[in-house]
Description:
By secondary structure, the chain is of the alpha+beta class.
Amino acid sequence: MSLKLFFAPGACSFVPHSMLELAGVPFEPVMVKLHKGEQRSAEYLAMNPRGQVPVLVDDGEVITQIVAILLHLDAKFPQAGILPASGLARTRALSTLVWMNNTVHPTFTHVFMPQKFTDDDAAQKAIRSFAVTSYRGLLAEIEAMAAKASPWMCGDRPSALDAYALTLLRWGGITAIDPTAQVATWALAQRFAALPAVARVIERERLQLNLFQPAAA
Ligand SMILES: N[C@@H](CCC(=O)N[C@@H](CS)C(=O)NCC(=O)O)C(=O)O
């Protein structure tokens, strides 16, 4: 069995990256430098024509999309607790995971890369500013979920939801949303980051949890 994960530091690939480390299975992490455009190299596009991370390569089979990658890993390593095993707990966790991936994450894309949505400079500014407000509201929804975590989002085991919550909260810092003000999510993220397996990922990606910079006046 050979597993390779293409990841970029601080990107959404942190979610499968931390799940692979938590699973304790051998895998090869391959860093992709998005700021250098490595995701658009001919070699990378031959593997993933969408030019994005994460990509999981399992025995030569290329798998893209976070939710698909996580479900694939969960089926392969059920002991890892990537999602609750069954029942309503699993359904609810999937519902939150998919919402994080298809709503919260793309809202941040509008903040971080408004150029993907229009080439008009003024419209980009408007998109960004509207998306920051939406993103704030979405982080407040995550905060309400984190406040009920006991101790993790899915109960007694850390899961993909904790990893995604950390990632989304961390990104908020870039948009002048102070992560420490989201008290429950911040505590959850710190607890998750302190798990030895996750600490290895944070070290490999050289991540700083708190990226907060106040908005310019
Ligand atoms: N829907 C995709 C989203 C992946 C995604 O947005 N990846 C970003 C990093 S967080 C990326 O690779 N961006 C590089 C680019 O678009 O150039 C998934 O779930 O995997």
